[in-house]
Design a protein that fits this description.
Keywords: Chromophore, Flavoprotein, FMN, Transcription, Transcription regulation. Pfam families: BAT, GAF_2, HTH_10, PAS_9. Residues 208-262 form the PAC domain. This is Bacterio-opsin activator domain-containing protein. The chain folds into 5 domains: 2-133, Response regulator (Rossmann fold), CATH 3.40.50; 144-249, PAS domain (Beta-Lactamase); 266-439, Beta-Lactamase, CATH 3.30.450.40; 444-586, no CATH class; 592-658, Arc Repressor Mutant, subunit A (Orthogonal Bundle), CATH 1.10.10. Helix content is 40%, strand content 27%. It contains 22 helices and 24 strands. The strands form 4 sheets. Strands 20-21-19-18-22-23-17-24 form an 8-stranded antiparallel sheet. A 6-stranded antiparallel sheet has the order 13-12-11-16-15-14. Helix 20 (605-616) packs across helix 22 (639-658). The longest helix has 37 residues, at 251-287. The model is unreliable at 117-121 (pLDDT under 50).
Length: 660
């Protein structure tokens, strides 16, 4: 307890100073006492000599009414006046055992003061315990606090610790006996941040508060992140007497922050790498003039990135049921003939699984990589920490699989897998576009005649159910993915349309027109229609004829197209299907002059004349300055005859356009 005594040299001061539970400060002047009240828990006024205890008591009460004050005097009048002035305790100077009695009154006055609020401190229930219990409780609270607490002596060289709590022992592994008397720097090590250490040293030298986070080491040598908060404690003279420190283990938070930072940097690196990769692949896909260029270019683009050691692209070879390499890139000494994957293996390889499922497949675990390396003597196993098999999928067609061998497992993280899937789709789209373009540009085509009784084809089932014959008149592909298919039927149109309602993938059926026993029917087909599926592979339907549930389909595809792949595609989707004939034929050049010549060959002289007269005279303009009667008269024929010629010419012209 801090006791401020005002006395003119009374011997009772020596008795108080011997009490180890008291920290005594003695002054002889009242003015000195008034300036030090903030550092006092109790004031003792010893009357006599130059000290007027009652006058000083009155001044104290005017300043701090609740401060405990004990007056010692040998004059009864002083005692009476002191009580009137609000003294806390009074001790006669001539009382037996006056030193013990004075000590008891000081303790009693302080205890009484803790049970009531003061101007300096907020009232707290802990104060009801009394001074001794309050101090003991506070000491236990510090000892059992969940953070490490240290007190260092600022007046001794190197600021040694004079107190540590139990949590500091648990946090660091050091016992009180081992570290009390030392500076706390023994917790620092080789990876402790020198800037944080310097910040602590500077604050301590300046007597200021400081807070730092640095790597410390336990007694076992285990590093941990420690948040250190240091605050100065000032003595009664205003100088720094001690430093109190708080140590908090923040290892989990710092590790989480560092993990977030590592992921941020990894993501930035990934974005830079992906940006370059996407640019290179896009440039390759846009600038390539053929499939070989696309396949080689995509492989080259990947191995140009540091994280990929090798890449190869395999396409299905139906004659051997394998994925056979058509392109590769990287430094490994391996020929394309040695790069192939068995599609029929009981334990399918990674690329085979990607091809069959149409989904990206990735392997990064060491055991699986080692097993793959054992079956692939050309693979540089030590350099590979991940393999990705990227299917090249467009619609329902898988053109092949791109196999990538990464030098970093992190290169195949979740972000990069999304990009790999996108590149796979883009590559497949480019291959499909090239295949379609080849179909349009080639002069040599292969024609396949297919016969099927498969009920999965709605026109086969409609013919079987209704007994009608159906003839394919073409298709129109719509932006929403549906296809309009037109069929000429010789059966009951209403019966055919009623039967079509049972198919969930036929959104609607409609009678376009009916003439005698012939009807033109339109079917809106959703999902994956046969024309759309074939069109994805650059295959055109030239004709479909269905009679009594048996359909003959005539297909046209580029001569270098994969006939086996088309056959497998059809047989897989429609098992009751077989190729009955295939042949090659030359397709005439499709120039503007050739098209005009073809149309003119189809038209009779009268039809061509009727068409030309209608065009040049403005018959097709919105205001139609000429009538059919005038045009018929110019040809010296009747109006009805003129319109017959004109309709016939228009039909042949439109037919030639849609047959292109």
């Amino acid at each position: 307890m801090r006791v401020l005594a005002v006395s003119d040299g009374d011997e009772l001061l020596a008795a108080l100073d011997r009490r180890t539970t008291l920290a005594l400060t003695a002054v002889s002047e009242g003015s000195d006492a008034l300036s030090r009240l903030d550092d006092a828990d109790c004031v003792v006024l010893i009357d006599g000599g130059g000290v007027d205890a009652v006058a000083l008591l009155e001044r104290l009460r005017a300043s701090i009414p609740a401060l405990p004050v004990v007056v010692v005097a040998d004059d009864g009048t002083v005692a009476s006046d002191a009580v009137a002035a609000g003294v806390s305790e009074y001790v006669p100077k001539d009382a037996p055992d006056v030193d013990d009695r004075l000590y008891g009154r000081v303790i009693a006055a302080a205890d009484a003061a803790t049970s009531r609020p003061t101007d300096r401190n907020a009232r707290m229930p802990i104060e009801d315990l009394g001074l001794r219990e309050e101090l003991r409780l506070k000491e236990r609270a510090i000892d059992e606090a969940p953070v490490g607490i240290t007190i260092a002596d600022a007046d001794r060289p190197d600021e040694p610790m004079v107190y540590i709590n139990d949590a500091f022992e648990r946090l660091t592994g050091y016992s009180k006996e081992r570290v009390v008397g030392q500076n706390c720097r023994f917790l620092q090590g080789e990876d402790s941040d020198p800037e944080a250490v310097a910040a602590m040293r500077g604050a301590i030298d300046a007597g200021e508060q400081v807070s730092v986070e640095l790597l410390n080491y336990r007694k076992s040598g285990e590093p941990f992140w420690n948040r250190v908060d240091i605050a100065p404690v000032h003595g009664s003279d205003g100088s720094v007497s001690h430093f109190v420190g708080f140590q908090t283990d923040i290892t989990e938070r710092r590790e989480a922050e560092m993990q977030v930072e590592r992921e941020r940097r990894s993501l930035e690196h990934l974005l830079v790498r992906i940006d370059g990769l996407l640019r290179d692949v896009t440039r390759t896909l846009v600038g390539s003039g053929g499939r070989v260029e696309v396949e080689r270019g995509v492989c080259d683009s990947f191995v140009a990135v540091d994280t990929y050691e090798f890449a190869w692209l395999g396409v299905p070879d139906r004659s051997s049921d394998t994925l056979a390499a058509t392109a590769s890139a990287g430094e490994w000494a391996v020929s394309l003939d040695d790069l192939h994957v068995d599609l029929t293996a009981s334990d399918p390889p990674l690329a085979a699984t990607a091809y069959e499922t149409g989904e990206l497949r990735v392997v990064t675990d060491d055991a699986t990589l080692a097993a793959i390396a054992e079956d692939s003597p050309w693979m540089a196993a030590g350099a590979v920490h991940g393999i990705a098999a990227v299917p090249l999928v467009y619609g329902e067609t898988t053109y092949g699989v791109l196999s990538l061998y990464a030098t970093e497992e992190a290169a195949l993280n979740e972000h990069e897998r999304v990009v790999l899937e996108a590149i796979g789709r883009s590559t497949a789209t480019a291959l499909n576009a090239l295949e379609r373009g080849r179909m349009l540009a080639t002069d040599s085509v292969r024609q396949l005649d297919i016969e099927t009784t498969d009920g999965g084809l709605f026109f086969v089932e409609l013919s079987a159910q209704t007994g009608c014959s159906l003839t394919y008149n073409g298709s129109v592909y719509r932006d929403d993915g549906s296809v309009l298919m037109f069929f000429q039927s010789d059966g009951d149109a209403e019966a055919v349309l009623a039967a079509a309602e049972q198919y969930s993938h036929i959104a609607s059926g409609e009678l376009i027109h009916e003439h005698g026993r012939e009807a033109l029917l339109e079917f809106t087909v959703t999902d994956d229609s046969l024309p759309a599926t074939l069109a994805e592979r650059g295959v055109q339907i030239r004709a479909i004829a269905v009679d009594d549930g048996v359909a003959t389909i005539e297909l046209e595809l580029p001569s270098e197209g994969d006939v086996r792949a088309i056959a497998d595609l059809l047989s897989e989707r429609y098992p009751a299907t077989e190729i009955v004939a295939q042949r090659e034929r030359e397709r005439p050049p499709s120039t503007r002059q050739a098209f005009v010549g073809e149309v003119e060959e189809r038209l009779t002289e009268r039809q061509l004349t009727a068409l030309q007269k209608a065009y040049v005279s403005g018959f097709y303009e919105w205001d139609r300055p000429v009538t059919g009667d005038t045009l018929a008269e110019s040809m010296d024929i009747g109006r009805a005859t003129y319109h017959q010629h004109l309709r016939a010419a228009e039909r042949k012209l439109i037919g030639a356009f849609f047959e292109r």
